[in-house]
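Chapter review: from sequence to fold.
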Amino acid sequence: MDIVVSRKTLQNLLITLALLCLVGTGAYLAWQNNLLERFLPQRELQGTEPALGAVTAFFAPGIESGYEAWLAKVCVGMSENGCGLLRDMYGETVWQALATSGAKFLQANTKQLEDVETLENGHHIWKLNVEVRLLDPQGVEQTSQMQTYAQVSFDKESKTWRLERILFDQEIKQRYGGQS
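The token string follows.
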């Protein structure tokens, strides 16, 4: 028994097979490089207010209220570990820089731009836009905008995102190649 396959049928079969391989390879590469997440509609994260509020408080200290009041306001939206790190490691240094700047911080607003990375421990890195309004030492009102990155974690009990820490400029450059 002979099987007869026309040349056109064989060509169509090979072209179909080649196209399937190309589509499969393209889909695999898109999946590997997270391209699908970039182009699919983003679902809005719920429960971000505590983490964003902590970043806002961090950048808009009430200097007249003092260090402990600023720390308490920032820690409201932080995890227990994050607040401990701020209190024990770098809070006083940041406070001194803010307090001696001569500026009067009026208001800050923080907006999440992108969920950039998920770390091995389940924490996320968010890219944020922070807008700060202040009076400079001469009393002139200024508005400053910056982008920074923050490490956050999800508190399953309260179903909210908590700030772990704001990344340092050196880390941002090293990890993401940009400046805050």
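Two observations follow directly from the output. The CA atoms of residues 169 and 175 lie 10 Å apart. The longest strand covers residues 104-118.
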